[in-house]
Each structure stands twice: as structure tokens, then as C-alpha cells.
Amino acid sequence: QVQLVESGGGLVQPGGSLRLSCAASGFPFSRYAMRWYRQAPGNERELVAIIFSSGVLTKYADSVKGRFTISRDDAKKMMYLQMDSLKSEDTAVYYCNLGLDNVNYWGQGTQVTVSS
Of 37, 44, 91, 111, which one has the greatest count of Cβ atoms within 10 A? Predict the structure, then answer.
């Protein structure tokens, strides 16, 4: 069965950096696009970044463009989100996402808090 497990969240000061990881299993990881979403309290879940199966093509929300970098390691079945120049508005629970056969799969999420 599909499993997605996020890690790497925590408390960081504004301007700091964090690297999130998503460990995937139960499906042919290299064949699928993967996504990072986030959800702040009182807000809808929003798409942060996508990385396609090639690993070359990526897309970002305007709010994180130039500060976040999505990547993947197909051999390890891992996806990453490098977050730099963090702002208070980046505070949210971050989720790893897979769309497979018209089903959305989610991890449990990892909390990122940006605060001084």
C-alpha cells in the first residue's frame, strides 16, 4: 500500500532554513510526479511545489518561488523541500502528496513554525 512519511519540520527563526523529507513506498516512485502542499490554521490546503517524474521539470507557488527548492532521489524513493529565507507566513503543516489512479494520497504532515 502507498505510504508517505514526512519529516524535518520544526521551529526556525525568520530568514532561516529547513529541509523537509518525504519517504515514499508502495508504488513505483520514479514514474510519478510528487507534490508538497501546506495548510496554515484557518486556511485551505495550498499547493507549494511539484516535481515531475523526470526530476527536471518543477513548478512552484508564486509565494515560495526563489526561496524553496523541490527535489527527488528516485533510488532512495525520497522527495525533499529545501526552504530558505523563511518567513512567518510560511508557518503551516507541510504535506507530501501523490496522485495515483484518481486517488490522492497524503502523509501525516510535518509542522513548520517560523517565529522569533
Answer: 37
Residue 90 has pLDDT above 90, yes or no: yes
Angle in degrees, CA 21, 25, 31, rounded to 5: 90
pLDDT digits (tens, 9 = 90+) for 31-68: 999 999 999 999 999 999 999 998 889 999 999 999 99
Distance CA 13, CA 59 (A): 26
CA distance 100 to 50: 14
Query: Nine-digit cell at 100?
Result: 495515483
